[in-house]
Amino acid sequence: MNRFNWLVRREVWETRAIWIAPAICLAVMVxxxxxxxxxxxxxxxxxxxxxxxxxxxxxxxxxxxxxxxFVVTMGFTSFxxxxxxxxxxxxxxxxLFWKSLPxxxxxxxxxxxxxxxxxxxxxxxxxxxxxQLLVGGIIAAKFGGPIGAAIWSGRTWFxxxxxxxxxxxxxxxxxxxxxxxxLLVSAWAPRSPFLWAVAPPLAVALAxxxxxxxxxxxxxxxxxxxxxxxxAFKGAFDDTSAGPDTTIRLSKIQFELMPGQFLGNPxxxxxxxxxxxxxxxxxxxxxxxxxxx
Length: 293
Known about the structure:
15 helices
Protein backbone atom coordinates (compact mmCIF):
# COMPACT_ATOMS: atom_id res chain seq x y z
CA MET A 1 0.00 0.00 0.00
CA ASN A 2 2.85 2.38 0.83
CA ARG A 3 4.40 1.63 -2.56
CA PHE A 4 1.12 2.43 -4.28
CA ASN A 5 0.84 5.73 -2.38
CA TRP A 6 4.28 6.71 -3.59
CA LEU A 7 3.28 5.93 -7.17
CA VAL A 8 0.31 8.27 -6.83
CA ARG A 9 2.50 10.96 -5.25
CA ARG A 10 4.98 10.63 -8.08
CA GLU A 11 2.24 11.30 -10.62
CA VAL A 12 1.08 14.38 -8.73
CA TRP A 13 4.63 15.71 -8.39
CA GLU A 14 5.48 15.18 -12.06
CA THR A 15 2.17 16.47 -13.48
CA ARG A 16 1.99 20.11 -12.51
CA ALA A 17 -1.02 20.69 -14.78
CA ILE A 18 -3.14 18.97 -12.10
CA TRP A 19 -3.01 22.12 -10.00
CA ILE A 20 -1.81 24.73 -12.52
CA ALA A 21 -4.87 24.36 -14.80
CA PRO A 22 -7.45 24.95 -12.00
CA ALA A 23 -5.31 27.82 -10.67
CA ILE A 24 -5.33 29.51 -14.09
CA CYS A 25 -9.09 28.98 -14.39
CA LEU A 26 -9.57 30.50 -10.93
CA ALA A 27 -7.36 33.50 -11.72
CA VAL A 28 -9.20 34.18 -15.00
CA MET A 29 -12.60 34.01 -13.30
CA VAL A 30 -11.57 36.26 -10.42
CA UNK A 31 -10.02 38.84 -12.75
CA UNK A 32 -13.03 38.73 -15.07
CA UNK A 33 -15.40 39.23 -12.14
CA UNK A 34 -13.30 42.02 -10.63
CA UNK A 35 -12.41 43.94 -13.79
CA UNK A 36 -15.08 42.98 -16.31
CA UNK A 37 -18.61 44.26 -16.65
CA UNK A 38 -21.42 42.01 -15.45
CA UNK A 39 -24.93 41.64 -16.77
CA UNK A 40 -27.37 39.38 -14.93
CA UNK A 41 -30.28 39.92 -17.27
CA UNK A 42 -31.93 42.68 -15.26
CA UNK A 43 -32.09 46.40 -15.68
CA UNK A 44 -30.11 48.26 -13.05
CA UNK A 45 -33.28 49.84 -11.73
CA UNK A 46 -34.77 46.41 -11.02
CA UNK A 47 -32.00 45.37 -8.63
CA UNK A 48 -33.09 47.29 -5.53
CA UNK A 49 -36.72 46.18 -5.97
CA UNK A 50 -36.04 42.52 -6.63
CA UNK A 51 -38.03 40.34 -4.25
CA UNK A 52 -36.20 37.96 -1.91
CA UNK A 53 -37.39 34.75 -3.61
CA UNK A 54 -36.19 35.87 -7.04
CA UNK A 55 -32.88 37.08 -5.61
CA UNK A 56 -32.33 33.76 -3.81
CA UNK A 57 -32.97 31.78 -6.97
CA UNK A 58 -30.63 33.98 -9.00
CA UNK A 59 -27.95 33.74 -6.30
CA UNK A 60 -28.12 29.94 -6.39
CA UNK A 61 -27.80 29.99 -10.16
CA UNK A 62 -24.72 32.23 -9.93
CA UNK A 63 -22.98 30.13 -7.27
CA UNK A 64 -23.70 26.85 -9.07
CA UNK A 65 -22.60 28.27 -12.43
CA UNK A 66 -19.25 29.36 -10.96
CA UNK A 67 -18.27 25.70 -10.43
CA UNK A 68 -18.99 24.64 -14.02
CA UNK A 69 -15.82 26.08 -15.68
CA PHE A 70 -13.74 24.03 -13.25
CA VAL A 71 -15.48 20.85 -14.41
CA VAL A 72 -14.61 21.74 -18.02
CA THR A 73 -11.02 22.46 -17.01
CA MET A 74 -10.90 19.14 -15.16
CA GLY A 75 -12.13 17.38 -18.30
CA PHE A 76 -9.36 18.79 -20.49
CA THR A 77 -6.70 18.13 -17.85
CA SER A 78 -7.87 14.54 -17.35
CA PHE A 79 -8.01 13.88 -21.09
CA UNK A 80 -4.45 14.93 -21.87
CA UNK A 81 -3.00 13.52 -18.66
CA UNK A 82 -4.54 10.08 -19.20
CA UNK A 83 -3.65 9.95 -22.87
CA UNK A 84 0.00 10.69 -22.09
CA UNK A 85 0.30 8.83 -18.76
CA UNK A 86 1.48 5.44 -20.08
CA UNK A 87 2.58 6.54 -23.54
CA UNK A 88 5.20 8.97 -22.18
CA UNK A 89 6.95 6.13 -20.31
CA UNK A 90 7.32 4.24 -23.58
CA UNK A 91 8.25 7.32 -25.59
CA UNK A 92 11.27 8.15 -23.42
CA UNK A 93 12.01 4.45 -22.75
CA UNK A 94 11.70 4.95 -18.98
CA UNK A 95 9.23 2.05 -19.00
CA LEU A 96 12.23 -0.30 -19.06
CA PHE A 97 13.47 1.23 -15.82
CA TRP A 98 10.07 1.00 -14.12
CA LYS A 99 9.66 -2.62 -15.23
CA SER A 100 13.00 -3.44 -13.60
CA LEU A 101 11.65 -2.33 -10.21
CA PRO A 102 9.45 -4.49 -7.94
CA UNK A 103 6.36 -2.61 -9.13
CA UNK A 104 3.61 -4.51 -10.90
CA UNK A 105 1.96 -3.30 -14.07
CA UNK A 106 -1.37 -3.35 -12.24
CA UNK A 107 -0.03 -0.95 -9.62
CA UNK A 108 1.30 1.38 -12.32
CA UNK A 109 -1.95 1.49 -14.30
CA UNK A 110 -4.18 1.72 -11.22
CA UNK A 111 -2.09 4.56 -9.75
CA UNK A 112 -2.71 6.59 -12.88
CA UNK A 113 -6.40 5.68 -12.76
CA UNK A 114 -6.58 6.93 -9.15
CA UNK A 115 -4.93 10.21 -10.14
CA UNK A 116 -7.32 10.90 -13.01
CA UNK A 117 -10.44 9.61 -11.23
CA UNK A 118 -9.84 10.97 -7.71
CA UNK A 119 -6.93 13.39 -7.40
CA UNK A 120 -7.77 15.62 -10.37
CA UNK A 121 -11.51 15.84 -9.47
CA UNK A 122 -10.71 16.62 -5.81
CA UNK A 123 -8.28 19.39 -6.83
CA UNK A 124 -10.93 20.77 -9.22
CA UNK A 125 -13.51 20.62 -6.42
CA UNK A 126 -11.24 22.59 -4.07
CA UNK A 127 -10.66 25.20 -6.80
CA UNK A 128 -14.40 25.38 -7.52
CA UNK A 129 -15.23 25.98 -3.85
CA UNK A 130 -12.56 28.69 -3.63
CA UNK A 131 -13.91 30.19 -6.85
CA GLN A 132 -17.43 30.26 -5.43
CA LEU A 133 -16.16 32.16 -2.39
CA LEU A 134 -14.03 34.67 -4.29
CA VAL A 135 -16.14 35.23 -7.41
CA GLY A 136 -19.37 35.06 -5.43
CA GLY A 137 -17.99 37.62 -2.99
CA ILE A 138 -17.01 39.97 -5.83
CA ILE A 139 -20.46 39.69 -7.42
CA ALA A 140 -22.15 40.29 -4.05
CA ALA A 141 -20.00 43.39 -3.48
CA LYS A 142 -20.66 44.75 -6.98
CA PHE A 143 -24.43 44.35 -7.01
CA GLY A 144 -25.23 44.54 -3.30
CA GLY A 145 -28.88 44.81 -2.31
CA PRO A 146 -31.02 41.67 -2.47
CA ILE A 147 -28.52 39.85 -4.70
CA GLY A 148 -25.62 40.49 -2.34
CA ALA A 149 -27.63 39.38 0.67
CA ALA A 150 -28.87 36.27 -1.12
CA ILE A 151 -25.38 35.25 -2.25
CA TRP A 152 -24.09 35.34 1.33
CA SER A 153 -27.04 33.40 2.75
CA GLY A 154 -26.37 29.98 4.23
CA ARG A 155 -28.90 28.27 1.97
CA THR A 156 -27.21 29.59 -1.16
CA TRP A 157 -23.83 28.23 -0.08
CA PHE A 158 -25.34 24.91 0.95
CA UNK A 159 -26.76 24.54 -2.56
CA UNK A 160 -23.54 25.79 -4.20
CA UNK A 161 -21.22 23.51 -2.26
CA UNK A 162 -23.60 20.60 -2.70
CA UNK A 163 -23.73 21.18 -6.46
CA UNK A 164 -19.92 21.34 -6.71
CA UNK A 165 -19.56 18.11 -4.72
CA UNK A 166 -22.29 16.43 -6.76
CA UNK A 167 -20.63 17.46 -10.03
CA UNK A 168 -17.40 15.89 -8.79
CA UNK A 169 -19.07 12.59 -7.91
CA UNK A 170 -20.97 12.48 -11.20
CA UNK A 171 -17.85 13.28 -13.23
CA UNK A 172 -15.88 10.46 -11.57
CA UNK A 173 -18.50 7.84 -12.47
CA UNK A 174 -19.68 9.27 -15.78
CA UNK A 175 -16.21 9.74 -17.30
CA UNK A 176 -14.85 6.41 -16.03
CA UNK A 177 -15.28 4.46 -19.32
CA UNK A 178 -13.75 7.35 -21.28
CA UNK A 179 -10.82 7.52 -18.88
CA UNK A 180 -10.28 3.76 -19.11
CA UNK A 181 -10.37 3.86 -22.90
CA UNK A 182 -7.70 6.57 -22.89
CA LEU A 183 -5.56 4.48 -20.52
CA LEU A 184 -5.78 1.52 -22.89
CA VAL A 185 -4.83 3.70 -25.86
CA SER A 186 -1.96 5.22 -23.89
CA ALA A 187 -0.67 1.74 -23.05
CA TRP A 188 -0.90 0.45 -26.62
CA ALA A 189 -0.57 3.26 -29.20
CA PRO A 190 2.74 3.02 -31.09
CA ARG A 191 2.57 6.76 -31.81
CA SER A 192 0.03 9.61 -31.99
CA PRO A 193 -2.18 8.41 -29.12
CA PHE A 194 -4.60 11.29 -29.73
CA LEU A 195 -5.45 9.93 -33.19
CA TRP A 196 -5.80 6.37 -31.87
CA ALA A 197 -8.11 7.60 -29.12
CA VAL A 198 -10.38 9.65 -31.37
CA ALA A 199 -10.28 8.05 -34.83
CA PRO A 200 -11.61 4.51 -34.08
CA PRO A 201 -14.78 5.68 -32.24
CA LEU A 202 -15.46 8.23 -34.96
CA ALA A 203 -14.92 5.58 -37.63
CA VAL A 204 -17.40 3.25 -35.91
CA ALA A 205 -19.96 6.08 -35.64
CA LEU A 206 -19.49 6.96 -39.32
CA ALA A 207 -19.79 3.31 -40.37
CA UNK A 208 -23.02 2.97 -38.41
CA UNK A 209 -24.41 6.12 -40.03
CA UNK A 210 -23.55 4.93 -43.54
CA UNK A 211 -24.55 1.29 -43.11
CA UNK A 212 -27.61 1.58 -40.86
CA UNK A 213 -28.61 5.21 -41.08
CA UNK A 214 -28.61 5.50 -37.28
CA UNK A 215 -26.49 7.55 -34.87
CA UNK A 216 -26.57 5.49 -31.67
CA UNK A 217 -22.79 5.32 -31.29
CA UNK A 218 -22.44 9.04 -31.92
CA UNK A 219 -25.08 9.90 -29.31
CA UNK A 220 -23.45 7.60 -26.74
CA UNK A 221 -20.04 9.23 -27.32
CA UNK A 222 -21.49 12.73 -27.20
CA UNK A 223 -23.41 11.96 -24.00
CA UNK A 224 -20.35 10.50 -22.27
CA UNK A 225 -18.18 13.42 -23.37
CA UNK A 226 -20.44 16.48 -23.14
CA UNK A 227 -23.58 15.31 -21.31
CA UNK A 228 -22.33 15.56 -17.74
CA UNK A 229 -24.36 18.67 -16.85
CA UNK A 230 -27.52 17.09 -18.21
CA UNK A 231 -27.13 13.94 -16.12
CA ALA A 232 -25.92 15.86 -13.05
CA PHE A 233 -28.82 18.33 -12.98
CA LYS A 234 -31.94 16.65 -14.30
CA GLY A 235 -34.38 19.30 -15.50
CA ALA A 236 -32.14 22.14 -14.30
CA PHE A 237 -33.16 24.47 -17.09
CA ASP A 238 -36.54 23.12 -18.18
CA ASP A 239 -38.85 25.69 -19.72
CA THR A 240 -36.33 28.52 -19.34
CA SER A 241 -37.42 29.82 -22.71
CA ALA A 242 -40.95 30.48 -21.51
CA GLY A 243 -40.81 34.07 -22.64
CA PRO A 244 -38.87 37.32 -22.76
CA ASP A 245 -39.67 38.13 -19.13
CA THR A 246 -36.63 37.28 -16.99
CA THR A 247 -38.89 36.80 -13.98
CA ILE A 248 -40.69 33.94 -15.71
CA ARG A 249 -37.51 32.29 -16.93
CA LEU A 250 -35.84 32.54 -13.54
CA SER A 251 -38.83 31.08 -11.74
CA LYS A 252 -38.60 27.97 -13.93
CA ILE A 253 -35.01 27.10 -13.01
CA GLN A 254 -34.84 24.00 -10.84
CA PHE A 255 -31.65 22.36 -9.58
CA GLU A 256 -32.80 18.77 -9.23
CA LEU A 257 -29.80 16.69 -8.16
CA MET A 258 -31.79 13.46 -7.75
CA PRO A 259 -28.85 11.19 -6.82
CA GLY A 260 -31.14 8.19 -6.66
CA GLN A 261 -32.11 8.60 -10.29
CA PHE A 262 -28.49 9.01 -11.39
CA LEU A 263 -27.16 6.10 -9.32
CA GLY A 264 -30.08 3.96 -10.46
CA ASN A 265 -29.33 4.65 -14.13
CA PRO A 266 -28.16 1.40 -15.81
CA UNK A 267 -25.93 3.43 -18.15
CA UNK A 268 -23.81 4.54 -15.18
CA UNK A 269 -23.07 1.01 -13.99
CA UNK A 270 -22.72 -0.37 -17.51
CA UNK A 271 -20.04 2.28 -17.96
CA UNK A 272 -18.33 1.10 -14.75
CA UNK A 273 -18.30 -2.51 -16.03
CA UNK A 274 -16.91 -1.42 -19.40
CA UNK A 275 -14.29 0.66 -17.59
CA UNK A 276 -13.20 -2.39 -15.54
CA UNK A 277 -12.73 -4.41 -18.74
CA UNK A 278 -10.75 -1.60 -20.39
CA UNK A 279 -8.52 -1.14 -17.32
CA UNK A 280 -7.82 -4.89 -17.25
CA UNK A 281 -6.94 -4.71 -20.95
CA UNK A 282 -4.60 -1.76 -20.29
CA UNK A 283 -2.81 -3.75 -17.56
CA UNK A 284 -2.51 -6.76 -19.88
CA UNK A 285 -1.09 -4.64 -22.71
CA UNK A 286 1.34 -2.93 -20.36
CA UNK A 287 2.51 -6.32 -19.06
CA UNK A 288 2.99 -8.14 -22.36
CA UNK A 289 3.86 -5.38 -24.81
CA UNK A 290 7.47 -5.76 -25.99
CA UNK A 291 9.11 -2.43 -25.16
CA UNK A 292 12.59 -3.46 -26.27
CA UNK A 293 11.74 -3.02 -29.95
